[in-house]
Write a structure and sequence with these properties.
Distance between the termini: 24 Å
CATH superfamily of the largest domain: HAD superfamily/HAD-like
Radius of gyration: 15 Å
Shape: globular
Structural class: alpha/beta
Number of strands: 6
Number of helices: 6
Number of domains: 2
Amino acid sequence: MNKALFLDRDGVINVEKDYLYKIKDFEFIDGIFDLCRYYQKLGFIIVVITNQSGIARDYYTQSDFEVLTSWMLDEFLKKNILISKVYYCPHHPEISGECSCRKPKSGMLLDAKIDLDIDLTKSIIIGDKESDIEAGLSAGLQFTYLFDESKSISVSKANKIISNFKDIYDANS
């Protein structure tokens, strides 16, 4: 079985911007490529899990999301980093009704477990919201990191709150 590094997109891979769907507005967070290389060398596969309610809200289309995602994956490949798969929830509870994929539910992680033969107990999730951490915990992940560049969060269910990706290397040294 594989071990995975699960990454939220907005706020972890890229700078959080409301309902981001344009390549020109996409800004990678400092250190994300080094983080992914670090875990790739340790034998982790990399999986993105992201809520994208902007699709349900008609702020952008699924096609817009797919174009941006394809570009993002190519940017990672240029850095010799393979993202195994991107899972996304296009729903919003008030518009689409309840679903099993929208974080804090663990549907995307459980789908990845099956699709990519992942051992969730040996996997890691990095998110910037408590809903990311809750999804990981409910799926059985043992290692959870809450990424908070602003250092404004002091309480979380996460194993560790980090403000810099290098904090993870230090935690694992």
